[in-house]
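Risk register update: the risk of archive-format incompatibility is retired. Evidence:
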Amino acid sequence: MVTVRPEQSIREALERMQVNRIGAILIKRGEKIVGIWTERDLARDILKPGFTIDTAVIENYMSTRLYTAPDETPILKLQEMFLGFSSDIF
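Archived output:
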């Protein structure tokens, strides 16, 4: 799992993403995942006034509403959880 700390800069997150060839990075405080930041976030954030990758702190731009499930969760249950509908339809 590739992570950065909340106080790290966007540049540091991007560098880590580039080295690992990934499009999203998890934000970890201690042992807890507290957020995620993606290439799509960069596309949105870069247009905000005053945003610079060297001074912007990842904590101020990460998404904190995370959805998780145990790895043994059946696919149809995941579909219900993440898409908000019942597998009865299928």
